[in-house]
Amino acid sequence: MKKQKINQKELTSVSSGDIVNLHELLFTKNRDYLIKFNGDQVKAEQFADKIVFVAVDDDDTSFEEEMLFDPLPKTDLENDFEEVFSCMPWTAIPLSDRTSRELLQKRFGFRDNNGSLFVIDSKGVVLQTIVIYDFIRYGSLGYPFSSERLESLESECKAIAAEPTVEKLLSSPERDYVIANNGDKVPIHTLEDKVVALYFHAGNVTETDMLTEELRNAYEKLAEKEVKFEVVLLYLCDTPITIGFRNEDSFWRTFGTMPWLALPYKDPILKKLKIIYEYPEDYIYGDDEEISKLVIVGPHGEFCEPCGADILLNYRVPGYPFTREKALELETERIKKLKLEMILETNKVLTRNDGSKVCSFDVLMHYSKSLV
User: Fold this and answer.
1) Which parts of the sequence belong to the Thioredoxin-like fold domain (predicted)?
2) Kind of pairing, strands 229-235 and 116-120?
């Protein structure tokens, strides 16, 4: 059987606000169900009154053509389908139903080489047509993924970023605590009078291990001085480097070596924090330089410092509370302690703006007096 060519003109696609008949697209007269990988059948009536996500994997158009038209019973295509489907908890149209897949392709089209996701409500109204990266950005916080919900979420993040406090940043309607590595729940309100470091724990092993050790050293020394300082681990598992390589077991193994607190594994608030602090910044796919980050939040939101990691690595414990103001203070003190004779040659002749000459020794003596 000769493979048919997909007619791009037939790919009408849909936009937000359009109405589609999902029942006609997903089911047929001879098939009133979708399948799960374990073989279970999910009947059509179970989709009534539900919001449905239609995911289209557009990574390889030739692969999509094979899915639609390959007539062979057991091919590499089927093996690929089973491998991908085995990782997914949701339903799918059976691979053998080429007619339904062709109808879906003609109706929804291909949006992006990275895949497309269409969100459709129980009445068949298309709420959103988004690429996979947008879905990754919001996660479950974006549900039901209407434009109104996503705009509201962005506004909420901007409001928190303008006036951040530990409670606004870390709490949710379902959770008002962070956890210790023994499983204890620590109320978030107990952190409000402390300087809190939000530790975005990234996938770059070398950089992250170095920051962890410096942070551990500062944490222990500040604790000895009874300084009100706390760290909250934000264990990232959905960034380009960490996705697929981290799980709940690795979370507990990592967290178990740390003396501070953490957000629960895969807590939805992690998505919001990544939006607020634009993490990871300027990441290029395939780049290994996904750097961990420390955001320092002052007591009751008095200040917020997004460059805490750089300040800690450069100034260590004396840099506490790891703000740019403290770094500037330390640099000013360092410059004042420099002997100007280390900078200037005392027998060098300098020229003023007006053209007159002055010996560098005279300049040295003038500024030495001004620093006393």
Assistant:
1) 193-302
2) unpaired
Task: Kindly write down the DSSP assignment for every residue of 62-126, as one continuous string.
Answer: HHHHHHHH---SS-HHHHHHHHHHTT--S-B--TT-HHHHHHHHHHH----TT-EEEEE-TTSBE
CA distance 184 to 274: 25
Output DSSP code: residue 151.
H
Task: Tell me the chain's radius of gyration from C-alpha atoms.
Answer: 29
Q: Which of 17-31, 96-110, 167-181, 276-290 is least confident? A: 276-290
pLDDT tens-digit profile of 69-122? 333 344 555 666 676 667 778 888 888 888 887 788 778 765 555 556 788 888
- Can you list the alpha helix ranges (DSSP code H) found in the chain? 22-26, 61-69, 76-85, 98-108, 132-138, 147-162, 166-170, 205-224, 248-255, 269-276, 308-315, 324-337, 360-371
Query: What H or E segment, with its residue span, contains residue 296?
Result: strand 293-297
Question: Three-state SS for 31?
Answer: coil
Predicted confidence at residue 16, as pLDDT, reads 83
H and E: helices and strands count for the chain: 13, 14
* pLDDT given at position 364: 59
d(CA 8, CA 18): 20
pLDDT band at 294 (very low <50, low <70, confident <90, very high): very high
CA distance 180 to 248: 15
